[in-house]
Amino acid sequence: MCGIVGYTGPRQASRILVEGLKRLEYRGYDSAGIAVRRDEPLGDGEAPLSVIKRIGKIAELRQAVPKDLPGTCGIGHTRWATHGGVTDANAHPHVDGSGRIAIVHNGIIENSAALKEMLEKEGARFASETDSEVIAHLVAYYYDGDLEAALKAALGHLRGTYGIAAIHADEPGRIVGARNGSPLVVGVGDGEMLLASDVTALLAHTASVVYLNDGEVVSMTPAEFRISDGDDRAVDPKIDTITWKLDAIEKEGFSSYMEKEIFEQPESIDRALSGRMNQEYGSAKLGGLNLSKKELHAIERVRVIAAGTSWHAGLVGCQLLESVARLPAQAELASELRYRNPVVEPNSLYLAVSQSGETADTLYAMREIQRRGGSVLGVCNVVGSTIARESDGGVYVHSGPEIAVASTKAFTSQLAAFYLMTLSLARLHDMSHHEGQRFLAELRAIPEAVRASLAQRDAIQAIAKRYARYRDFLFLGRGILYPIALEGALKLKEISYIHAEGYASGEIKHGPIALVSPETPSVFLVSNDHLREKTISNIREIKARGGPVIALAQEGDDEVAGLADEFIPVPTVGSRFQPFVMVPPLQLLSYFCALELGRNVDQPRNLAKSVTVE
Ligand code: AGP
Is residue 539 in contact with ligand 1, taking CB distance under 6 Å? Predict the structure, then answer.
């Protein structure tokens, strides 16, 4: 949600900033801008900082930035609007009245109204409706020849969350950054330094990074950087190496990131499983959990906290943990948990599940649990993310960078992590060695089964062509396929803007069946277990009311194929593994419906990857 990039070094800053913003575009894409300090002597009336801002995508900004824009130090921002509409004036960077200070900001300044009133009394004139602009004026208010000192003084007045980068015309080559609740990473280059909200903006330049912690301030020049904490003490930086490669954030011949990420799933699931399956013991090992056998034995219940697609993965995981490992398990919406005064029971295992590891709702819920003495393990994709660092241990799902706003491969990798966790906990309880080995054999076959499910691509595209213009959809499933129905509905509405509801198919007769008509297709997920017959009855109920049915069921299920208007066969896997083979066709259905309607599948309207505000 919003992206920040900063560069200082020997090269032309504007190019690096615009390229960095392009990498960050998935974090927010309603407007963007850069501010670059002019190095050469200024002509009469020339502004010391070149500030260029445009509403729309980065392509608009790129067009507006002169190719030869001078300056080797600057900051940039891509915005997801919170305060103030989408206008050039509200786009970042924001400058102070003198035009010598520029700042970019991610997060929300909660007391901006009071600060603005105070600053206006001091003579500041505001040019935007944003909360962020107060930072520029506040830094100017405190500036006395030292940008770092002025920013630190300003921070003392800010309430809310921020990742900030600032430059001053009088301080050549210097960028100052500060973090509180919104990520910032320093990129350590050779004779140059970068600052970004996300490592994807740094990958083209360096693999050496330092993650800032909340309360820390960084001051950098091309040759060096120093970090200080909230008490102004120097922090010894820990330099990490990013393992993601640049090509992992390229489209590699696919027409969109979403398409690429859907088709990467056989490999990404394989990566999530790899090195974690122990055939000999019929068990699994997730090293990062940092729990001894004794501690694992002591777990009496599991609670998952997550949002959106990650919550859906948690719902699947909890069904598994309960039915296979026989542990009571519940997945909670992070945004709800934090504010309902939760009881943190001893011997509970809390799991914060988050692709980005930066989702504010999940992060704050995690901190709330930790404050009450609970320990929380993270299940994250992004290495070095805030949840990964602040949790008390955890696992990385290794799906690789997920750039499309709609989560696809991260979801199936999260599922893989839950299957491994279930196995390892089940083996400590009732599951026999032999059953464990069978479970593993089924899990090992999943990447290939997923590949086979993706082979339905063309058939699904043809279905999407026929159905994309319907305005309402129902997604229905039972048992472990109920969360997959929720996920199918979320994917469709998120990228195609078609209204879709996910329901447990047994629930439709309790209300939603009133929506059924020839204009409302129902997408049924038919399991291959004891719930199959019940789901088939639900299909008949829909058909009896004239509702079109698109059914996903195991290949060779002629009964379902005969009943449904459209049939999408999925590969044969054990019933508890069916989420893996049902979800890729649903992702493709949404994807092709969105394409059919001319939507931007990677950057759907109003959304941003990683939601870092509540
Ligand atoms: C998924 O397609 C969504 N874009 C969204 O629901 C997402 O899963 C949610 O915001 C949680 O994000 P996280 O996994 O990064 O915490």
Answer: no
